[in-house]
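Assemble and predict.
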Amino acid sequence: MTALTLLPFFPLFSFLILIIFSKRLNWQLATVIALSGVGLSFLASVLLINDLYAVSQSSDISAGVRESLWTWFMLGEHEVQVAFFLDPLSAVMIAVVTGVGWLIHGFAAAYMREDENYSRFMAYMNLFICAMLILVLADNLVLLYLGWEGVGLCSFLLIGFWYQEPGNAIAARKAFIVTRIGDTLLALGLFYLFLETNTLNIQEILAQQDSSPLSSEAAWWIALLLLGGAVGKSAQLPLHTWLPDAMAGPTPVSALIHAATMVTAGVYLIARMQGVYLQAPDILNLVAWTGSLTLLIAGIAALAQEDIKRVLAYSTMSQIGYMMLGLGAGANVAAITHLMTHAFFKALLFLTAGAIILAAHHQQNIFHMGGLLKRMPLISILFVIGIAALIAFPGTSGFVSKEAIIGQLWQSPTAGPAFWWMAILGAFITSLYSFRLVFITFFGQYRGQHELHPQRHFLLLVPLCMLAVLAILGGYIPTNLEQVFVAVDAPDSQSPSWLHSVAIGLPLVAIVVAYVIYFPRANATEPVPGKGSLYRFSRNGLGFDATYDALLVKPFVKLAKLNRHDAIDLLVQLISWNAFTWNSAAKAIQSGRLRWYAATLGIGTIILLLGVML
Amino acid sequence: MILTNIIAILMLVALVSLIIGSKFSRSLPYLAAGSVVLCFFLLARFASNNHDIFHQAMPLLSVPWITSLGIDYATFIDSLSFILVALTLILALVCILVSVNEIQHHHNFYYFNLLTALAGIIGVFAAADLFLFFFFWEVMLLPMTALIAIWGHENRRYAAIKFFIFTQVSSLLMLVAIIIMAFIHQQQFGEISFNYFDWQRLNLSMPLQYWLMLGFFIAFAVKLPSFPFHTWLPDAHTQAPTAGSVLLAGVLLKTGAYGLMRFVLPLFEQATVEFAPIAIALGVISIIYGAVMAFAQSDFKRLVAYSSISHMGFVTLALFSFSSIAYHGAIVTIVAHGLSSAALFSMAGILYQRLHTRELSKMGGLFASAPRMGGMLLVFVAAAFGMPGLLNFVGEFMTLTGTFASHPVATVLAATAMIGSAIYGMYLFQGSFQGKPHAGVQIADLLAHEWLLCGLLFALLLYLGLFPQSLLMHFEAIYPAANITVTGGKL
């Protein structure tokens, strides 16, 4: 057993221990078990990545390590194996999943300390890490699908962790079913891929693209279907509506699943299958469109949110939009780097938000906060560091990755200047909603009803500080991603010289605009949420939920309830009704009374005679 | 001898419990469980001794029965019947475990019926003579009807009669087809024969073959059940005692699938190819209709019953697509659905004993008082909606991968059931275990024997889900329609 085969299973062991003993474990013991499960995975990741790095230094072919455990099942001649594959792309993913995951686990241990189902919570978190590691390490698409469904199930369990609140249960169900639509498309993509390539092994599929590529029609469909899976999991248009509601889960869950790891699985999938996407430039263009529209729509929706976590949720959607846009433009290295840096700063933002929520007695409305800079200075500074990375402030990790994406848009054959403009507009909006959040939350007067109770547990603060360091410096971590991806040749035309300065400058301008609009003045009235219909429209996520509800959910439920008693069964009952009716009619005739028989005899004779005569 | 021995043991214990069982009704479950375990042990020993033999059909005991009509008592075994007999015996144990606290009266007659039904089902899987097959087909029907009619819920008589009429009428069609086949054998080979292996030599002309195939198909489609012959199932399931539901969903439905695989596909090759588009359409309609109907139910058992229709639709789809991958998928689905639906019905029974209701609206929030039961229910629901790692996923995935090549549209439609099953699965789990608990509703968590049955089913679903090859490795040889060129039957 090498480190690679054990890597995903450490959290599984700790999950089993936690779920079996659950309430019999006290907080300390449960914490040690949960943290050591993920921690061992993290150590194994570090070792493996070191080895991988050493190998790639000595030879220049893109090296990967493969470990096969057993044959899962056979599809005709093709063996679907339970096997793991590590290359620089999955190395980045496991580093993020185990590293950020570990920090979030530490934070969660402090955050959920008082919960009576603490062990169960940590067990689900461990199980999630296991499923996510299987997803990113899977050497074939069926095993990837196992991880894909596994993270979905854990996401369901964790969103609905406080299941007694009906709203949470509904949000959990919505997340599961909406992503399941994407999963089904993904599964169809796998069927099509198998039909065309006769294998589901990722490396074999990619190798085939060099020798005997997919026909363009097949590539078009397969790329489209895989994109369907990706938009479901990564909360992109049009399957994005589950993510804001998923904030019903405890805040560490939002940080781990709905910001740093699971929601980026779609990005990982598309990056992983780059060879297939290169055969379908139309779909790459569609990926770019999906990303850019999502980043704009999510940004606009974020401008009108009142719940601190919902702002961050829409912001996550929008940042994943950037990653999609990068993938669509062929800037895969930049997109995956942004995935990594986003994991750092968005986890930081969610966790600091969690610390604020904890201090404010589970108050999440930013209009009931305010003035937190003076009352919780450390947390506030950490939050602002996260925000700086989010808006790609020069010098932060977000700057490195986001500028890399934006810089490649103008010349990309599958994107172009229009996408560049959308990305820039998106960056402007990002900055605007970020500083709206900062100004309303941290400045002015404190508006909450309860006194703040900041927690100072070291498990709460240490992960935050480490994430803050990563949010600043994380962009400079070497990734070797160039070995995995095919560089897309851009035409040699010169892009205008002002591109960079506009891209860097516009977010800074937005800070000033936000200051003018949102900064609480000393003698002005308290900030209040907007009242206009446009504000309400964007607060409700630009009406997607209402539309789906009216067009899909309601008709489905109505149709199903309408046929509750099964129309087919009514036909069957018609037969039995006939039998019973004729039976009672016939019984009525057999009354046993002589007069009745004589009368019918007479009438019958008369009818017969009449019939003969006429 | 092996299957005959198993049938004999079960019948013997059934008679013992009927005649003298009323004197020791408390220990009857132990007796029944003991006999089932013994049978399982015999089967396992047989399998380990004959590891490589039953890739192909292996004839077992055969003695003349009604010589003037050429009817023999002839049995045989191959991988398919082995797996189904093993599944039957495992679920028999589950049936006995769920009956322990549930059955309150006429214990001796109850176990007589249960064991006779089991013997009949195993007989169906063992028979190599079609007359014998039909005999066992009826043997399993009568005790099953009795189980529903005597120990069922409030509307049991209606459900029992409906079940009886549906299966009886459809099996009459099959009887006619069986007799005609025997006479055709007489025409072509000079002597009357009901033997399955003799029939494989028959040369059937086309329109006749089609009608004979239809006679078999309808009988099996009612059992499966396929749309539009499914309406007996929700009533029968809902009204049956828990063990009856487990037996119905777990193995009785599988006799329909077994019939399709054993008789319809190999004996009427030409007719099935011609009939395939209709069968596939019925399969797809069953899949979607079952899933939508399941969501519309408010009764726990009715919901699971409709989900069975949806899952068995996958079997029809797989078998009539003539793809060997899908054929393997059908085998996996049969086992997977047997285990997972048995588990869900057991859950329904366990909840009914505590709450005396099957209405989801009267449940809710049970996770607070019974977290382990909730966890188990979640696992079984996850199995039903095709969570990878559990067996049902492998079946669905192989089926759809196999059918996609020849029937892409049907596959896409069938795949929507992956969404549908998630919807009704979530509805079931959340309706019963999440949300606010009703005031004062406290239920006991799983008891020891309930743990045993849940653990058994979970372990099997997980083990086979991760190592489905242990189920499939013997099936390379017996795919029957491999020589059919898939030309007809595109949808």
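The first strand of chain B starts at residue 58 and ends at 66.
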